[in-house]
Specification:
Blueprint (H helix, E strand, L loop, with lengths): L1 H20 L5 H6 L6 H13 L6 H9 L3 H29 L6 H8 L6 H33 L3 H50 L2 H11 L8 H4 L1 H8 L9 H8 L7 H29 L11 H9 L2 H38 L6 H22 L7 H25 L5 H21 L10 H18 L6 H8 L2
Length: 481
């Protein structure tokens, strides 16, 4: 029954891909859906593609180990979500259309600064492909842990099943298939995270009993104060919120909104969803710590999966575990699509002497989806990989590299092409070096913080002194209704 429900769920998602396969006529349809997302799809697709399997595996797993400290991540993410929707969404939607209908983040940067040079566009695309390989690998690791845990199949077989599940409908339907499946997957994730904590509390005697058990395990698991967990750690956890401004798969939902005036309603939907799901994910992890207190060697990132498998009948468990697959697919598909568009629209179409037909470009995009997915598959082959670790690196890379560039392009009238190029380059390199070559003391700070700061300072300073390229009149033109 469990297998049947999950197969049925996958067939439903694949059917959406086939439906939009027949309606995808050109590259614009494939990578941005013709800017036609309604408020509900825009909101739910942005949030579902944001959270990924990390919401149901990585965050509960961290709460299982660290306790209420995990709420610092949730608080940072909730604040980042709000600020992104409040300040970035509408202006990016307007600017991207006015700048010669830019379809991707890379093309937006080039067109925003009216440059004939393609260096910034190419640089942006290379960083997108680099960090999205890691991000997609995280999704495949999550899918492998799901199938390995519930069906007890070998890790590599589980990884292969996840690869097939994600690639199939992304390959077929493109942006609209991804966005509409995200709507259904986001709803499923929401209700799954609402239901599981209540059932677990019923099994362990309520929240009061759970708190007593956690206190007996380790009192520090209930300490949220900065003094208890350390200021450096709190900054690192809360800084996850900085990442939102530079995530291409989330920003694409803003760019694809049907009407800029509908974004305010989308923001309200998104905030209700994100606050409830983040809080519930942390609670699931902490309740799981109580329920599996006496289980030696428990794999913390599988806590949601194990609770569902152990406490629910097969029919309901199948539906709830489909939420894990939904979380994985809703982000991995978006990452594959953005990677595909970065290559076709921002590398091939920029460098090729002869432009392909619309149909040929769509098929090239589909081929790139396969290539990126296969490379990510090989990166995910280590069974000891953690979803949280992979997501943290990719999130920091994208947020620290592109976040400041997006904000300066939207709000700083003196921002220039040279400043943006330098900021993206040095911000991305800072994240990579900080993560891979520095450690200990201040270098334990989450790499998104130094990356974001370096990129912001460089954009501001280079743009300030690049006076001959200031174009404040064009900025004012973009602001006009």
């Amino acid at each position: 029954m469990l297998l049947f429900i999950i197969i049925l769920y996958f067939i439903g998602m694949a059917a959406i891909g086939i439906y939009y396969y027949k309606r995808t006529q050109n590259l614009s349809d494939y990578i941005l859906g013709g800017r036609s997302l309604n408020p509900w799809v825009s909101a739910m697709s942005a949030q579902a593609s944001d959270m990924s399997g990390w919401l149901l595996l990585g965050l509960p797993g961290y709460a299982f180990v660290a306790g209420v400290e995990a709420f610092w991540i949730s608080a940072g993410l909730a604040l980042g979500t709000y600020l992104n929707w409040k300040f970035t969404a509408k202006r990016l939607r307007v600017f991207s259309e006015k700048t010669d209908d830019a379809l991707t983040l890379s093309s937006y940067f080039q067109k925003r600064f009216k440059s004939k040079s393609v260096s910034l566009r190419l640089l942006t695309s290379v960083f997108i492909l680099f960090f999205f390989l890691t991000y997609t690998a995280a999704g495949l690791v999550a899918s492998a842990k799901l199938f390995n845990t519930i069906f007890d199949v070998p890790y590599l077989w589980a990884l292969s099943i996840g690869l097939f599940a994600v690639v199939s409908y992304t390959f077929l339907g493109g942006f609209m298939a991804v966005s509409w499946t995200d709507l259904f997957q986001g709803i499923l994730m929401f209700f799954a995270l609402l239901i599981v904590p209540f059932v677990v509390m019923g099994e362990i005697g309520g929240m009061g009993s759970a708190i007593d058990v956690i206190r007996s395990i380790d009192p520090s698991l209930l300490q949220l104060s900065i003094g208890a967990v350390g200021i450096l750690n709190v900054i690192s956890l809360a800084a996850w919120g900085l990442g939102y401004f530079g995530q291409p798969h989330i920003l694409a939902r803003f760019m694809a909104a049907r009407d800029p005036e509908e974004i305010k309603f989308s923001r309200r939907i998104a905030m209700v969803w994100v606050i409830i799901t983040l809080a519930a994910a942390v609670i699931v992890g902490m309740l799981g710590r109580v329920y599996y207190n006496n289980v030696a060697g428990f794999a913390s990132e599988t806590v949601f999966i194990q609770l569902v498998a152990d406490l629910f009948p097969a029919l309901i468990a199948g539906v709830l575990l489909s939420a894990v697959l939904a979380a994985i697919m809703s982000t991995a598909d978006s990452q594959l699509l953005v990677s595909s568009s970065a290559f076709v629209e921002d590398i091939y179409n920029v460098l090729a002497k002869k432009k392909l037909s619309d149909v040929a470009q769509v098929w090239m995009g589909r081929f790139v989806v396969l290539v990126v997915a296969v490379i990510a598959y090989f990166l995910a082959m280590d069974p000891d990989s953690t979803v949280l670790g992979l997501v943290a690196y990719a999130w920091a890379g994208l947020g620290g590299t592109f976040g400041p560039a997006v904000l300066f392009s939207l709000f700083y009238r003196k921002a220039t092409y040279k400043g943006t190029f330098a900021g993206i380059l040095l911000g991305g390199l800072t994240v990579i070096v900080w993560r891979n070559f520095l450690s200990g003391g201040i270098f334990d700070l989450y790499e998104i913080v130094p990356g974001f700061i370096v990129s912001s300072l460089v954009i501001y300073l280079v743009s300030k002194y690049d006076t001959k390229n200031h174009d404040e009149e064009y900025f004012e033109e973009l602001l006009k209704e």
